[in-house]
Amino acid sequence: MTEPVDPADREIRLAIWKIHILHHAAEGPIYGLWMMHELAEHGHRLSPGTLYPILSRMEKNGWLTSVPGQSRRERREYRITKAGRSLLARLRSEIKELHDELTEEKT
């Protein structure tokens, strides 16, 4: 998605980005810049002004926790919480069910 996100699509895109973030945080610590590059590899070009507020809201919701670097130049590390893992497990199940329904061949 190289063009700007249509405001009408933004709500759904935000959910997709958050699920992607949770998925990677479940695999290990993530960093903002790395996450921007990871999302870009999938066609989602987010600016820091978009990504960092998402990470902040996810932290406020209790899905992520963060640890600042030792100095101002060191990056902030984000980790998934127990609540984030629980949410991701539920979402995986729901997404699989939706995927199966969307890809089911109609006869």
UniProtKB/TrEMBL annotation:
<dbReference type="InterPro" id="IPR036390">
    <property type="entry name" value="WH_DNA-bd_sf"/>
</dbReference>
<dbReference type="InterPro" id="IPR005149">
    <property type="entry name" value="Tscrpt_reg_PadR_N"/>
</dbReference>
<dbReference type="InterPro" id="IPR036388">
    <property type="entry name" value="WH-like_DNA-bd_sf"/>
</dbReference>
<protein>
    <submittedName>
        <fullName>Helix-turn-helix transcriptional regulator</fullName>
    </submittedName>
</protein>
<feature type="domain" description="Transcription regulator PadR N-terminal">
    <location>
        <begin position="21"/>
        <end position="89"/>
    </location>
</feature>
<dbReference type="Pfam" id="PF03551">
    <property type="entry name" value="PadR"/>
</dbReference>
<dbReference type="InterPro" id="IPR052509">
    <property type="entry name" value="Metal_resp_DNA-bind_regulator"/>
</dbReference>
